Each structure stands twice: as C-alpha cells, then as structure tokens.
Amino acid sequence: MIIVYHPSMRESYDGTPAGAPRRLETSIEILENHGNYELVIAREASEEEILRAHTAEHLRKVQRESESYQDERLSLMASLAAGGAIMTAETAMRGEPCFGLLRPPGHHASAASYWGFCYFNNLAISLLHLKAVVLIRSAYIIDFDLHTGDGTIDILGDDPGFIIHNPSGDGDEEFLADIRDRLDSSPPVDIIAASAGFDQYEDDWGGNLSTHAFYEIGRLMFDFARRNCQGRRYGILEGGYNFTDLGKNVLAFCNGLQGK
Hints:
The chain has 260 residues and is α/β, with parallel strands linked by helices.
C-alpha cells in the first residue's frame, strides 16, 4: 500500500498542535518498518489545482500567513499537503488503496476562509482534481474526525455528486453502526475517500473510539469500494493529537483499508 508524505512534514511549521514537532514520528516509524507499506514523496500543488477549491484571495492569505512565522515554511507545507492529497487520490483511482500522511490538515478550510489548524482543503482539492480531469463524477466522503468538516461541506456540499458523511455515536458500536448504515444505503459512486481524524480516539480529545474501531472503519471502506466503486478508496490525515498512539491508529485504519 502506498503512503504519501514528505520528509519536511516531520518538522514543526507553526505553533498549533497539528504543526507540533514529532506529531508524525510514530506513524512514519511504524509504516516504514512494515513490509506492506511504501512511502512516496509528496509534490506541491499548483496554484491552478488549489484554485479549484479556493478563491485567489484565500491562496494569497495563506501565503501571507507563512510570512508571519519565523521559519516561513507554512505555505510550502500547505502546498505539499494539497499536492500529496492529489497524488493519494490518483493512486486510489488505479484501484490501489492509499493514505496521505500529510499535514497541515484541511477539512476546516472553506473556499474563502480557514481555521482549526487548516489552510487548504486537501480532500476537496484532491476530489476536484479528479473531477476536473474527468476521472470521477461522484464520491462518497466519510469524515470521521472529532470535528465536523465544515470546510469540505462549504466547498463540495452543493454538488449532488458528492455525498458527505460526518458519522457520530457514543463508543465503537454506535459509531460504526452509523457508518455501516449510511454506506449500506448509498448509491454507487466513483470513489470513496476519508478525512481521517484520529482525535476520536479513546485516549485523545474525543475519548470515544478504540484502535480497533479505526481498523473497522477502514474495513467498511474496503467492502464498500469493492461493491460500489471498483475498489477505489483512500484516506487523508486530519486530526489526531495523541502523538504516542497516532502511529498504531493510522496502521489499524490502513490495514482495514487494505481488507487485511
């Protein structure tokens, strides 16, 4: 399975929890030492690709924001996350599961604004790229982050081809039942994608889901993709702030996404 990331993402880029040093270390260490995973280096997104989801003023604002941080890397990191998301989606279109181990996260970035540690909406940019190059017309988006992906809804919510589901439920059983019920009632789509937020974890901010639940989410996506969209499925990292356990949770989700 392909994991898209960039070595620069191991570094700190701002003062937020998402940009903190060592946030991705356990994920990289675990996946690098797992024979089933190949790490591929992300590329930057072009302005044309970013502007499919965001206004020109939004793009310029992110570029100006970078200048306010001492290391001046924020806009580069945001561009790498968006470009890496496109690479992740393109890999999935070949029927190969893929995960974007990327930061900054993106699902709180709307067409013209951002908050919640996000700058560009990586998932929306990736799906609009696939649509622009006429690879898809529809997609099922599952956002299992602790927080609703308001930016994704803002950018994609008016397009009838995109189904956006932010599941809920107390504990593994209710949460997974909500996902299962909605997937079972979904029409066929061209691809399924996840905004994969691991802050629902029982030892993270959400205090709600076990590591096994993340495996089951991936497995539900695998089963859905096999039935409804020719095996096309991928995930993009959003939240997850228990740095010690993030790696095992990402691994669990990716194992499920592979159907293992």
